[in-house]
Amino acid sequence: MNTIAQTAQFLKENNNFIIIPHRSPDGDCLGSSSALLLALRALGKNVKIALPTPVTKRLMFIWDESFEQGDFEPEVAIAVDDAATYMMLELYDDIFAKAKKSICIDHHGTNEGFAKDLNLVDSTSAAAGEIVYRIICEMGVGLTKDIAERLYVSIADDTGGFQYSNTTSETLKIAASLHDCNIESDEIMRKLFATHTTEEMNLLKFVTDRMEYHFDSKVCLTYVDDEALLKSGAEMNQADAWIGLTRSTEGVEVGLMFKLIAPNETRISLRSNEYVDVSAVAKKFGGGGHVRAAGVTINESYETAKEMLLNELKELV
Ligand SMILES: [Mn+2]
């Protein structure tokens, strides 16, 4: 694994970058990617972002048309917040693997480092944004309001608004220094955590209606299928707004949300509260993530995938 100093040095020595976030980019991914773009542009570099899937409405406020790849030909590909290569979808083959040089900046403990030139994976960081913050400081780029705002989005989103156990004193020190850049933190928090589309609100009814409890109510699960999407008007990625609720019922240790993508494709988001390492569970089935938040796609029906997960969790809760 490489260091912050090595990464900063490498970035300063190169000029044409393409940043590749993960599919369905969350606030951490998009915030850290766009903050890094702005910092590198401040150094006179050419930088664009190639998105595996479009930016959601929730995060449009940190997106800008000038970030889009267009016909730009990069030299260096930078994976940001990508736990594994498949998280880039076809952009891995089309851009990342083809690029002359590649680096990986991430904080997922399951990431083994897949880039050619440099791998900076620090699972003690609550967000990829913490690592990007350190890289930006190391490169000597001043924190503008635009950069600080994006790093704040990044860290706030991956800590659930500084609530999760990944929040450290280091996280809060970084957040404090971002605060000093005159960001409107209240507005950011409202946009991230207290604003939902009508479709999301409609979807919430399905998410709670379908909740079921297992193993002495230590596991709570729910699912989102085509029927729920059709009746609520929501899209599958909007279900992400309610994943956290699966572990919110008193006494629940593990929360699961099953997304029925296709008859034989089920995507599962896993959350835990105190003692179950859900990244280990996800990894068993080919997924990954963090100790308290992970994900996996299983090429089976909902019923089969559910049975597989419950079998695994039976011993753990
Ligand atoms: Mn992240």
Q: What can you see in these coordinates?
A:
The protein has 11 helices and 11 strands. The protein is α/β, with parallel strands linked by helices and 317 residues long. It has 2 domains: 4-193, inorganic pyrophosphatase (n-terminal core) (Alpha-Beta Complex), CATH 3.90.1640; 198-314, Diaminopimelate Epimerase, Chain A, domain 1, CATH 3.10.310. A 6-stranded mixed beta sheet has the order 6-7-8-9-11-10. It has a 5-stranded parallel beta sheet with strand order 2-1-3-4-5. The radius of gyration is 19 Å and the shape is globular. The structure holds manganese (II) ion. Manganese (II) ion (MN) binds at residues 28-29, 81, 107, 127-128, 158.
Per CATH, which architecture of the largest domain? Alpha-Beta Complex
Query: Bound small molecules, which ones?
Result: manganese (II) ion
Order of helices and strands: HEHEEHEEHHHHHEEHEEHEEH
How many DSSP-defined strands? 11
Q: How are the strands ordered across the major sheet?
A: 6-7-8-9-11-10
Sheet with most strands: 6 strands, mixed
